[in-house]
Amino acid sequence: MPRPIEALIHTGALVNNLARARAAAPDARVWAVVKANAYGHGIERVFEGLRGADGFALLDLGEAERIRALGWRGPVLLLEGCFEARDLERCSRLDLWHAIHCDAQIDWLAAHKTKTPHRVFLKMNSGMNRLGFRPEALRTAWARLNALPQVDEISLMTHFSDADGERGIAHQLATFDAATHDLPGERSLSNSAATLRHRQVRNDWVRAGILAYGSAPDHPEHDIHHWGLQPTMTLRSKLIAVQQLQPGDTVGYGSTFVAERPQRIGIVACGYADGYPRHAGTDTPVLVDGVRTGTVGRVSMDMLAVDLEPVPAAGIGSEVTLWGRGPGGGLLAIDDVAAVADTIGYQLMCALAQRVPVRVTD
């Protein structure tokens, strides 16, 4: 039989989470963000669950071609725009909308020969300091684009750096509003955190990224239950061995765990080569047969150990939920695992290894 690890993608959860984005921004249209291969889920696997979105936002032309190949004829937005001038040919062929965040992209567009003008999203750097025109340069960029026959409509966008935290968005929102208040065009400002937490922001388009995949963008302040989100990915495996420890016995590489009493542990067919975080230490939460327990010792390439004391009936073949939905209605949010491993749910989703079989289910 094959190795007993697999990932499940839950179509119904994708539908639910998209609905939560709409409920949070009832006056806006929703981009389903499918960059990074749909946050590790697979674009083709999430398409049915997210096709109720108004558009798909992504990063590269290969992802855009995959969305078009699935039959999507609605808006597709390149969030970082083009990376070189010849990309504009494929934008024309695939009917893509694209971000403009620097002068070079305007230069490329000015030299581009196209029969159909492009829809562009002019990006402002309102304080994140990654991409975009600074406030004092935005109007010049807008004027250049507005003068080009290659441009059909200009929308405006920015990205918040602290929508999930204490600093908030007021400083960036004020900067954006001051620079754009009298400019025409639709606005796209809110990412997942801003969509859920800052509903006063005026948006024509919101960008549903991590929330679409059942992770709370402001964890640990709020969890997925607070926002009504459901996990869209389950990573599960089985116990392949059981060990009985005696006081003083150690577990795993480096002997970082030392048993203080007689203890029963199980060995799971999952390790860092499957995408599980190697730096997840003892007591990282897992479910065994739907019961919450924790890991023991270091994570190996292909295996990890779990404490079986809370699950005395568990044995070889027992189901282990590394994150997501467990048997009997058990649920382990990916954010809970990520927090103990000192990372975020985004990284765990995106790190799922190619060797893990993936199946789509409702």
Overall description:
- This protein is of the alpha/beta class.
- The chain folds into 2 domains: 205 residues, TIM Barrel, CATH 3.20.20.10; 129 residues, Lyase, Ornithine Decarboxylase, Chain A, domain 1.
- Helix content is 27%, strand content 25%.
- The chain contains 12 helices and 19 strands.
- The protein has an 8-stranded parallel β-sheet with strand order 8-7-6-5-4-3-2-9.
- Helix 1 crosses helix 3, helix 4 packs parallel to helix 5 and helix 7 packs across helix 8.
- The radius of gyration is 23 Å and the shape is elongated.
- The model has no long low-confidence stretch (mean pLDDT 97).
Summary, kept brief:
By secondary structure, the protein is of the alpha/beta class. The chain contains twelve helices and 19 strands. It has two domains: 11-215, Alanine racemase (TIM Barrel, Alpha-Beta Barrel); 233-361, Lyase, Ornithine Decarboxylase, Chain A, domain 1, CATH 2.40.37.
